[in-house]
Amino acid sequence: MAECHPVGFQWVMEAKARGARIFHVDPRFTRTSAMAHRHLPIRAGSDIVLLGALINHMLSGGHDFREYVLHYTNASVILNENFRDTEDLDGLFSGFDAETSSYDPETWAYAAEHRDETLSHPRCVYQVLKRHFARYTPEMVEQVCGIAPNDFAELADAVVANSGPDRTTAWVYSVGWTQHTVGVQYIRTAAILQLLLGNIGRPGGGILVLRGHASIQGSTDIPTLFNLLPGYLPMPYAHHHEDLDSYLERAAGDTGFWGHKRAYMISLLKAWWGDAAHAENDFCFDYLPRLTGDHGTYQTVLDQIDGKVKGYLLLGENPAVGSAAGRLQRLGLASLDWLVVRDLQLIESAMFWKESPEIESGERTAEEIGTEVFFLPAASHVEKDGTFTNTQRLLQWHHKALDPPDDARSDLWFMYHLGLRIRERLAGSTDPVDRPVLDLTWDYPEEGPYRDPSAEAVLREINGYDADGETLTGFTALRDDGSTSCGCWIYSGCYADGVNQTARRKPGAEQSWVAPEWGWAWPSNRRILYNRASADPQGRPWSERKAYIWWDGEQWTGHDVPDFEKTKPPSYEPPPDATAEAALGGADPFIMQTDGKGWLFVPRGLVDGPLPAHYEPHESPVSNLLYGQQANPVRQVYPRPGNRYNPVGGDVYPYVFTTYRLTEQHTAGGMSRFLPYLSELQPEMFCEVSPELAAERGLVHGDWATIISARSAIEARVLVTDRVRPLRIQGRVIHQIGLPYHWGSAGIVRGDSANDLLPIVLDANTHIQESKVATCDVQPGRRPQGPALRALVRRYRRMAGIPED
Amino acid sequence: MGIESWPVIRQLTGTDPLGRGRAARSGRTDALVPRTRTADRVADSVCPYCAVGCGQKVYVKDEKVVQIEGDPNSPISRGRLCPKGSASKQLVTSPTRQTTVLYRRPYATEWEPLGLDEAMDMIADRVIAARRAGWQDAFEDKPVRRTMGFASLGGATLDNEENYLIKKLWTALGAIQIENQARI
Amino acid sequence: MSNSLYGPLPDVAEDAGYTEPPERRGFFTDTSVCIGCKACEVACKEWNAVPDDGFALTGMSYDNTGALGASTWRHVAFVEQTRPHQVGDGVDTRWLMASDVCKHCTHAACLDVCPTGALIRTEFGTVVVQEDICNGCAYCVSACPYGVIDRREDDGRAWKCTLCYDRIGDGLEPACAKACPTDSIQYGPLDELRERASARLNTLHEEGVTEARLYGEDDSDGVGGAGAFFLLLDEPEVYGLPPDPVVTTRDLPAMWRWAGGAALALAGGVALSFLGRR
Fold this sequence. Notes:
The complex is a heterotrimer.
Chain A: H1 9-17, E1 23-25, H2 31-35, E2 38-40, H3 47-60, H4 66-72, H5 86-89, E3 96-97, E4 102-103, H6 125-133, H7 138-145, H8 149-161, E5 171-173, H9 175-178, H10 183-196, E6 207-209, H11 216-221, E7 228-229, E8 233-234, H12 244-251, H13 261-273, H14 297-305, E9 311-315, H15 319-322, H16 326-334, E10 338-343, H17 348-351, H18 357-361, E11 372-377, E12 386-389, E13 394-398, H19 411-426, H20 435-438, E14 446-447, E15 452-453, H21 455-463, E16 520-521, E17 549-551, E18 556-558, E19 636-637, E20 655-660, H22 676-679, E21 686-689, H23 691-697, E22 704-708, E23 713-720, E24 727-729, E25 732-734, E26 736-740, E27 761-762, E28 774-780, H24 788-800
Chain B: H1 7-13, H2 27-30, H3 35-38, E1 41-46, E2 55-61, E3 64-70, H4 83-86, H5 88-93, E4 102-104, E5 112-113, H6 116-133, E6 135-139, E7 142-147, E8 150-154, H7 160-172, E9 178-180
Parallel strand pairs in B: 8-9
Antiparallel strand pairs in B: 1-2, 2-3, 4-5, 6-7
Chain C: H1 12-15, E1 25-30, H2 39-48, E2 74-84, E3 91-101, H3 109-113, E4 119-121, E5 127-129, H4 139-143, E6 150-151, E7 158-159, H5 165-168, H6 175-179, E8 185-189, H7 190-206, E9 213-215, E10 228-232, H8 255-277
Parallel strand pairs in C: 1-10
Antiparallel strand pairs in C: 1-8, 2-3, 4-5, 6-7, 9-10
């Protein structure tokens, strides 16, 4: 966190000064470790064992926050008698189909019976959890993670001591948890632990993701993601006779706040297609294209190589450096008919045809690459109005300070004017496929010399309007009859009362510690989600020290906007046929869940199991000590030329590597490697190795090393450091190599890209690549130049018995 | 400038006989004013790097950004910025920033200039053609009404409003391969 | 003559001819909370338009700017240490980080040797180079007991931290202190900073961090106390700081006469240059 979010880290330092105990779990000793009370070096890819052992510690030692667990989680739910756990099936859950490598989740559903409030029924979630995590012991932590039992005990004791009515523990993570083939299950394991300890929905608690880009949260909320519509409504999949009703049936549950999904969806369709959307035509639901599988960015790149994608637009993104399997990324770009790159600088993804490892090695020449490339200069953040959504769901408006230079324009300008041009060309078309474009609401007021569309007008559309054209006060005002429009239901209220709430900048010193009048947080300006859980079932704060939201006899009140219906009493019991939020009780804090409970066990929604289980990374030096099942059985693999995988174990690729960022650089470098003041601070690609590994391979500090995988080989300067420790795993020494991934072939400072080493292998829930762990070899000296580079990679593949490309 | 302001005269006649302070001040030193003071205007902004969302103040003079620093009013950042945030002015004013359109013909070895309007027209034509070429009414018998002809990958430094228009226009065109750093 | 070149000096600005000067200002850099982010280095460069200092990996941990110099006015040192576990086997890793800066000495040798009057004491008690006066003679460079001030190769003039003289004159914090994410760099009236530092030191000692110490806060030291002082977690040498710096002009009480003469010579030069411009 100190490395990648230094200014956010000031609050950790504040907490530390006030007595908080800080643990840092990371393969390397980083700048965060330097500030922590304890650094626990861990083998990359083994976190579920550590977290699972903490869960086991809480359950076997009776440390769970029983009242919270009983009332606020699904611990007492009885499971289907046909459900089989990994305990029964050696690492698989019931429902697995080996042929399709997928699960049928039918047996994961709750049994029809009621709950067991004593938590003693053998099939209740609590007892299933206990059995499931029983094998996650401190000894297993030592054998799999490389963390000694006394270090584990110190962590476990601190978590216990800092959880309960009077204290809370927070877990903070970043892509160190998500970029795995079991990424979602990492977060799930933390969620189970935090729910058991009562650390969700309370101040100082939570599982806090540190997102790495200014509006990466916003890019998820208002998704430029293939499988989502704004506000986490799913994109429709292709089915026979799918209409709005059947889509909504599948989209989410009928109870809890998703029960209003029809209002959210119809309001979105109204925002997009205005008067053209009405009840008679299913509000233009058929205008939405349909999905038939994974259309994520990695699938798209493979489709580019296979000639299925003609055109590509990169809007402030540099996949040639920033995405896994860099060589495939660049081959994808080289296979296109045309490419548009919008950025501030001439990044690698714009220059791939001229400067790239493939050009250098002679594998490709510019004269062979048929891609037509447009580079369009982008406006910087100070040259446009708009909102970023930060990592705590806070929308903050940034004001335009001046016009962008020359041809530089905002992406808002680009999309708007491109839309105008496309509509102009299609005007008068009678082809039904053009109706969705021609009927689209696309009439934003224009401003300034470049005819910029008004960003405020777009934000107002996102906020939504009522039938009279007034801006909506919030998502509870949305209707399912077509009388309201709203571009993103969770953002509704950001322009309440005709005021840009996101532009509020009341000084922090002039308001409470929650600072509710700075910017605007979704939903409804709530700063802690599910904060009903900060009070006990009767509505009283769990403790004075941790008071946040409470029932004052008439309504919910406190420091934050209650994430609950303001006047629903704690005693409320839903009538039998109730829907939406009315179906949840007065002590059900998790209002987006169909049952209002925090899910320790997830009966639906995940493709790789209702409980987390430790699987080894796709490329691992060791076999899975916990189960016969080696790796996540539903992970997405793409064995094909250019994407060969290193075998498990073996001597050819004996070392683990992990990739990461440095404070002084930013992601794929487009915003840092071109700036002298940042480039001079971290001027070269390096690898971090332990003195023991340096001795084993003859690596010299300050000299060069070549790192080799089945995909490619890169060179890096060597930093020999005690901050990287060899770990003893299952009786043998495992070396880990640290690789920052910022460099490429353009910019003031240049170097090889760590992403060139990585394969494409994905988490099946999120389709996110496993870039936090893979295997490699390392040798002293610089890598070969020219054709010898690919020859080296091939020689290694042959040694490992990997198929030829 | 009169002779009484010469350092040596001040040194010999004033309170600073060693000439190490007041007497040695130059006219430039006396006239120093921070450029935050002389800016024409200041805009409230937000740091474009990570997702902490630090507040920034952007100072503009003669239509140039002359300083970007932290906004002390922000309850998130309290005026502080990391090295990247502190380099924001260089990000914006970088001399290597490419501010005009460049075009690379198929199989060409060099860039060539292109007008913005012309580029926009060409891109509009190509989007329409790729959409047509990759159009699917059905996939495995099920209606899909989509195009696989073009794809888009957006960075996570885009504004919400920009992401909204991207999703809206591409979806209306039937494109589904709309992706973002958020999946990476 | 009240002017002093050595030992404690109650009001360093008054000594330099300012009547009723504001409180002396300085930096307290608490390295125990430094996260080594180098925001100070960048914020300083952005504000003061300091050029980059080259693009070479030094191999000195995460430090790639090396040392303070003409083009690095804040420099973050990184020190990797290992020591045996206090209990049990193995070693503990410690990564010390510290942002160094010009000390703005009470007795500033750079200023004392400057023949042109380019280096001056400001009303805030800080020491600055006047870039319009400096002729690049570099006497200051060898005079500095800390090796801070340096000449820039391209323009030949001497450069160093000004404690953002223009900013503090307008009531603003210096750029580095303002940016510092963890408040490792604190700016303010020196007396206040010394009190704060002493309290912080006590807290650390109570927490068992017995190796914590202050550096440069003592006005009876060899430079009469520094305007920019530090809380360190190890010996100064570990961070590349001299353990017992002494103002290099301590033994040259006659310096002022020489300096005065040089200033007269300069005045002539300045007059000539005025004539030349007209």
